[in-house]
Design goal:
Blueprint (H helix, E strand, L loop, with lengths): L1 E5 L5 H10 L4 E4 L2 E5 L2 H10 L5 E10 L3 H9 L15 E6 L6 H20 L13 E6 L2 E7 L21 H10 L8 E3 L6 H10 L20 H14 L8 E5 L2 H13 L7 E4 L12 E5 L10 H17 L3 E7 L4 H5 L5 E7 L2 E8 L5
Length: 371
């Protein structure tokens, strides 16, 4: 079976790297990374991937310039392999740069073709769809139809520990990617001086402790026909055994907002690592780590969430003092402000472009001059 671990724009290579570290031959493609495997492999990917959005089973791909070609292509796919007589199979859709631009028509035709296929295979005229849900999607891009089954259910950023997003939420999957792409490695001090409700700190702690991000949540595939509950339990047990919370050290953060820190502490507890990350109420200007070397990793205010953009730029300028006072530390920042480097008065040694929600942002890494 062929699977696609979907990813936000710019993170395809990061997700491919994650899959390779899990032992799979993965190829980065537009929208994610593809890998071959079984449902057990899909379950492992759902459990352990930190930066992917979903894990989709690719049932088939084919050219479809007309609704007739779409119907015939869907009809030829082996839906009986994944759906039993009781399966509920809602069909979602998406069309872009295709001759077939009516999403609702594509969904309807796909559903009809699947039903016709199942009628022939199960010798039934009616399906109540009273069983487990198997989410199906038809995507048309450049006149190529792709039919997939969503094995994840809720998006993989839904780890379960975050119950309040704050004013400028950073998705858990993007936060994990920022951790991976930073110069920080487990064992080094990590500080977030704008920690908000704690997402970057928690994702770093998960990496440090080998904690599977999907450990305490469920996935759609666990109710699919032919997917063994024993297999799911075995993989969860193995993931739980890998979790080593005692490895979490030197991860700390602060924020000027007391309510954000209250929620950060709550989220840290809900993440199963209560007491292992230190957070406090503090102005960024007062942050003074004891360690001579480390990494500042942060998602500071962008200006969109400050009433006065000039105040935001003044804040950026003051961040240069943070580096001067801690000359052995690197600074990693994600921001949508186009003049961040001008404000901070230095050039980033590395830059990458991402989207934080709908905002186009740059991820900048400022390394110590001694490097």
């Amino acid at each position: 079976m062929l699977f696609l671990a979907t990813a936000a724009v710019g993170l395809e290579g990061v997700v491919a790297g994650e899959l390779r570290r899990l032992g799979y031959h993965a190829t980065a493609v537009n929208g994610g990374a593809e890998f071959e495997g079984t449902f057990e492999d899909a379950m492992r990917a759902n459990l352990f991937l930190r930066c992917a959005d979903r894990v989709l089973l690719i049932v088939g791909r084919f050219e479809a310039r007309t609704f007739e070609e779409l119907f015939d292509g869907v009809l030829k796919l082996p839906w009986e392999t994944y759906l039993d007589v009781n399966s509920r199979f809602p069909v979602s859709g998406n069309c872009a740069r295709s001759q077939l631009m009516s999403v609702s028509d594509c969904q309807s035709i796909t559903k009809k073709a699947i039903v016709n296929r199942l009628k022939a295979k199960y010798h039934r005229d009616w399906f109540q769809e009273s069983g487990a849900t198997v989410p199906i999607s038809v995507t048309l891009h450049g006149n190529i139809a792709r039919l997939t089954i969503d094995t994840s259910g809720e998006a993989l950023n839904r780890r379960g520990y975050r119950t309040w997003n704050g004013e400028a939420p950073l998705r858990e999957t993007l936060a994990a990617a920022l951790v991976d792409l930073s110069p920080w490695r487990p064992g080094m001090p990590l500080c977030d001086p704008f920690c908000g409700t704690g997402t970057l700190l928690i994702e770093a702690a998960y990496k440090m402790s080998h904690r599977a991000p999907g450990l305490t949540r469920s996935f759609a595939m666990e109710s699919f026909p032919g997917v063994s509950s024993e297999m799911s339990k075995r993989l969860r047990d193995l993931a739980a055994q890998e979790f080593q919370p005692e490895r979490i050290q030197n991860i700390f953060g602060s924020d000027i907002d007391p309510e954000a820190i209250r929620l950060a502490k709550k989220h840290i507890v809900q993440a199963g690592i209560g007491g292992l990350i230190k957070v406090s109420v503090s102005d960024m200007k007062d942050v003074s780590p004891e360690q001579p070397n480390g990494v500042f990793l942060c998602n500071p205010p962008y200006g969109e969430r400050l009433s006065d953009r000039k105040s935001c730029e003044a804040l950026y300028r003051s961040m240069s003092h943070l580096l001067r006072q801690n000359s052995g530390w690197s600074l990693c920042v994600i921001t949508s402000h186009p003049q961040f480097e001008r404000c901070i008065g230095m050039r980033a040694s590395k830059k990458r472009r991402f989207y934080n929600g709908r905002l186009e942002c740059e991820y900048m890494i400022f390394e110590p001059k001694s490097k």
